[in-house]
Write a structure and sequence with these properties.
With about 325 residues, this protein is of the alpha/beta class. The protein has a domain of about 230 residues: 3-Layer(aba) Sandwich (Rossmann fold). Helix content is about 40%, strand content about 15%. The strands form 4 sheets. It has a 7-stranded parallel β-sheet, with helices on both faces. It has a 3-stranded antiparallel β-sheet with strand order 7-6-8. A two-stranded antiparallel sheet has the order 3-4. A hairpin with a 4-residue loop joins strand 6 and strand 7. The two termini are about 15 Å apart.
C-alpha cells in the first residue's frame, strides 16, 4: 500500500515517524519484511526555505531528514544531536549571519552540500534523493515544488519580512496581516509530488501548521487539483487539541488569516472534498469530540482519537487511526 503524507515542520516529522512505525508493525504482524508492505512518500513543504550566508537552508526538509535518520536533537527539538557551533560563532562575529539564527557545524555540512548541488544545476528532487541516500530513512521525501517559493510575512505596521525572521527572531509576536509565497504563481508541483499523490492508496495531511507548513504546499498551482482528482481518500489530522496548538505558534498564523485556533475551524478551512475542498475525513482529539457530529454533517466524516504523540506507540497508533479512517472511506 502506498501512503502519501503532506508534511512540514517538527510536528509533521513526528507524525511521519509514526506512519513509518505503524507500517513496520503492520508488516511484522503480517509476516512480511518491513520494507515490503508499504511505500511511504512525503510531499515536503519548501515554503520555509531561505538563503542565508549564501547557503540554501531547508528547515522542514531537514527536520524530516534528521528525525527519520535518528540524527535529530530531541532535547532542543530541532537540528542535529551532538552538535557544535564554532562556525556559527565565527559567522556571527563577522556579521554574516544574525545572532537569532544559529547553524550547527554538522547542520552546515548539509546546507553546503545542498547549495553546491543546486548551484551545479541539480534539481531539488535529486538533491532530496542524494541527502536521503546517506541513511536508511524508510520513506521517500519529495519537494512540493522545484521552484523557490519562500514565505514572507506582512505585519500590521507594514513590514514584509521572511517567515524565518518573524518566526525565529520575533517568535511570531509581531501581529501579522497575511502571508505571501513569493514566486508561487509561476510554480508547479514537482513530478515526484504529482506521482506520489496520483499513485497513493491513502493520502494524509500531517498535523502541521495549516498556514505556513501546509499552506505553501497547497498554494502551488495545480496541487489542490491533484489532491481533489486523486482516487485515494484524503484524511487530515488536527494540529490543535482542546483549543490549543500542540507545538509552535500556529495560533498566531491562524489568527492572521481569520481562522480560530479550533480543530473544527481548521477542518472547515481545508473544506470537504465533496464541496470543492480537500478533506474526505478528519481526525481530532478526544478533547474535541463535541465537534464530531457537526463536521460529519458538513460532509467531513470525523473521528475523535488520542492525538498526543508522546512516543513510538502513541505516534504509531495515531497513524494507524488515520490509515484506518482512510481505508474505511475508500
Amino acid at each position: 500500500m502506498r501512503i502519501t503524507v503532506l508534511s512540514g515542520g517538527v510536528g509533521g516529522a513526528r507524525f511521519v515517524l509514526g506512519v513509518r512505525e505503524w507500517a513496520r508493525r503492520d508488516a511484522a504482524a503480517r509476516g512480511l519484511p518491513e520494507d515490503a508492505a508499504h511505500d511511504i512518500r512525503v510531499v515536503v513543504n519548501t515554503g520555509d526555505d531561505w538563503w542565508l550566508a549564501g547557503l540554501r537552508i531547508a528547515p522542514d526538509h531537514d527536520s524530516l531528514l534528521y528525525a527519520l535518520s535518528d540524527q535529530n536533537d530531541q532535547q532542543r527539538g530541532w537540528g542535529r544531536r551532538d552538535e557544535t557551533e564554532r562556525v556559527a560563532a565565527e559567522l556571527q562575529a563577522w556579521g554574516v549571519t544574525p545572532e537569532w539564527f544559529t547553524l550547527g557545524d554538522l547542520d552546515l555540512g548539509v546546507h553546503i552540500a545542498r547549495t553546491a548541488w543546486l548551484r551545479e544545476g541539480t534539481p531539488l528532487s535529486e538533491v532530496y534523493r542524494r541527502l536521503g541516500a546517506r541513511w536508511p530513512l524508510g520513506v521517500t521525501l519529495v519537494p512540493a515544488t522545484e521552484t523557490e517559493v519562500d514565505t514572507h510575512v506582512r505585519t500590521v505596521d507594514g513590514q514584509l519580512m521572511h517567515f524565518q525572521e518573524w518566526w525565529t527572531r520575533y517568535r511570531a509576536s509581531l501581529p501579522a496581516t497575511g502571508f505571501e509565497n513569493t514566486g508561487v504563481a509561476s510554480a508547479q508541483p514537482s513530478a515526484g509530488a504529482i506521482e506520489a499523490i496520483a499513485g497513493a492508496d491513502v493520502l494524509l495531511l500531517a498535523p502541521s501548521n495549516p498556514v505556513v507548513s501546509l499552506g505553501p504546499v497547497l498554494a502551488v498551482p495545480g496541487m489542490r487539483e491533484a489532491l481533489r482528482s486523486a482516487s485515494a481518500p484524503l484524511v487530515g489530522i488536527s494540529p490543535v487539541i482542546g483549543g490549543r496548538v500542540v507545538r509552535g505558534m500556529a495560533d498566531a498564523c491562524l489568527a492572521a488569516i481569520g481562522v480560530q485556533t479550533d480543530a473544527a475551524a481548521i477542518a472547515r478551512h481545508y473544506g470537504a472534498r465533496s464541496a470543492d475542498g480537500l478533506l474526505d475525513g478528519w481526525l481530532l482529539a478526544v478533547e474535541d469530540a463535541a465537534s464530531v457530529d457537526g463536521l460529519t454533517r458538513a460532509g467531513i466524516p470525523t473521528r475523535a482519537v488520542p492525538l498526543w504523540m508522546r512516543d513510538a506507540d502513541t505516534s504509531a497508533a495515531l497513524a494507524g487511526d488515520a490509515v484506518a479512517l482512510a481505508l474505511h472511506l475508500g
